[in-house]
Specification:
40% of the residues lie in helices and 17% in strands. It is of the alpha/beta class and 127 residues long.
């Protein structure tokens, strides 16, 4: 398991930016979905979403873009997240540091009615 993949639960991990080269090893680690929460062009040198999406397609793993920019997390983002993870067993979400991915998951689960104290604990444990 890649040490930068931070476990929040057995089925959800948040990570700093991944590269196309990290996609196939993620599949080998049992992930069945990658969510990219980083908007393209956020900083020079970051891999474009299309490059990671192509690597995901080649590796046979589902891939979804839910870019979270300066405007923050919207209700549409929460809905897109819930729709993306439905039926998935092990999800890897990434952004620049992993914080937006952790926050999106926490907000989405809280919006769905999960216990907020547990969610905060999972987010804190996951870094």
């Amino acid at each position: 398991m890649n040490p930068k993949f931070n476990r929040l639960t057995d089925g959800f991990f948040a990570s700093p930016q991944i590269t196309a080269d990290e996609v196939a090893p993620a599949v080998a680690d049992g992930f069945d979905l990658i969510i990219n929460n980083r908007p393209d062009g956020e900083e020079p040198g970051q891999p474009p979403a299309a490059e990671i999406a192509a690597a995901a397609a080649a590796a046979g793993i589902a891939y979804v873009d839910i870019p979270i920019g300066r405007e923050g997390i919207s209700h549409a983002d929460l809905h897109a997240f819930d729709e993306a993870i439905a039926g998935r067993s092990k999800v890897l979400a990434c952004c620049r540091t992993g914080t937006r991915s952790t926050t999106l998951r926490t907000f989405a689960r809280a919006h769905a009615g999960d216990d907020v104290d547990r969610l905060i604990s999972e987010a804190a444990t996951g870094g």
